[in-house]
## 1
Amino acid sequence: MTEATEAQDLTAFDIDGKEPIIKYRNVSKSFGDNEVLKGIDFDLYPGERVAIIGPSGSGKTTLARLLMTLETPSEGTIEVDGRHLWHKEVNGKLVPADEKHLHKIRGDIGMVFQHFNLFPHMSILRNCIEAPIKVLGLSKKEAVERAKKMLDKVGMLEKADDYPASLSGGQQQRVAIARALVMRPKVMLFDEPTSALDPETVGEVLNVIKDIAKQGDMSMMLITHEMSFARDVADRVCFFDEGRIQEQGPPSKLFAHPETERLRDFLKSFH
Ligand code: ADP
């Protein structure tokens, strides 16, 4: 089997002729003696949605933090849209990247964390226009237009003038999603976006993410403990355990016919 057909078997997404937008190659990460990621190879294709599941402590968040350059790998390389993180190409040679280079690459990735981190002293609208004005250099008018569109998309336009403290956790997370989308990232990275929420607001946030997934060609990496959500939204599910991708495939295959004992045990814990 060629590499391309092998890769195509792993996802329900049509990757024909596409180049990955994110490429991890042999990425390892240790904290002291603790090797948290062990030689990860991982590709995400433009428009593809990948759910990352696995037990706590298996390295999922570290995988995401590396992409945001919040951590550096102990070994291996990561590329975003053909550009190396931590290094840039100058006259055909890779040299250590400067902050400007990292800044540009980070701009391609919109991240939504477990904790939404909205600025408490700013209105919802202001929260959404700060970065597009300061980082992208948009005029206030353009930023407001974009922000309103995104707030509308997540059902929060009516609250544009309110402050974060007056919103529920689910509503704040919807604003955090709008705030990330305003930057028009190439990839959206969600790290357990619902695990800090009250159970009654989990559904509204998952629905917003599902809508975004359905609407467009946004590439997504979703770290989640919500198995039915992963099944509904993802083209591919990666099961992480002990710092490795133990098994991956389209959700129809992975959930119905898990091949490894570890994945079977993990899935049983959700019944
Ligand atoms: P997951 O997201 O799957 O729960 P994490 O990537 O958060 O896993 O963590 C994997 C392991 O890495 C855990 O054992 C955790 O304690 C360790 N770890 C993560 N970040 C750090 C850090 N900054 N310093 C030391 N250990 C860390």
Note: The longest strand covers residues 34-44.
## 2
Amino acid sequence: MDALLIVDLQNDFCPGGALAVPEGDTIVPTVNAMAARFDHVIQTQDWHPAGHQSFASSHPDHAPMDVIEVDYGEQVLWPDHCVQGTEGAEFHPDLDTAPSELILRKGFRPGIDSYSAFYENDGTTPTGLTGYLRERGIDTLYLCGLATDFCVKWSAVDGREEGFDVYVIEDATRGIDQDGSLAQAWDEMNEAGVQVISSEAALDLA
Ligand code: VGL
Ligand code: ZN
């Protein structure tokens, strides 16, 4: 059984937001068209407390986009974004959230970032998504949303590791592209057995 997973299509990741992904908003019509066609739709929502460890503002000696070493490895320091309860954390106003059966929040632990929909960035703290999908008999995921090279990639690769068939809908995702991270993300996804599909082809399958 298939599900569409819409990753972090929130105001702060769209132009005008705190951590804007170039053209992030342009995917909304395509995502809505997909959500209307899939039998099961799930969304993630980046949902950080103020003062989150991933925010550069929590590290006085650092600037946004610096990379530091934390307990669980490298951490990119981001501008404050998707703070719980703020406008920036809301979904893009044109995104149709009605079809979504589950909205999974992540990144709410102050000391740990969470790019993947399956595991926090320590690689061991589960979000519960694997169990939810398995119990519901979902074995194939179609990913779209933001950002290709962070939350979409980490979710896609973890999805493969958890044993799901994973497709990324190429024209329904956009990347941050920090120091070549976008090309590297496509390589990593390819190596993990993630398949790339167009929205047109995905709509035919749905
Ligand atoms: C994301 C950076 C920080 C994403 C979330 O949704 O890709 N990127 N938090
Ligand atoms: Zn975040």
Note: The two ends are 10 Å apart (CA to CA).
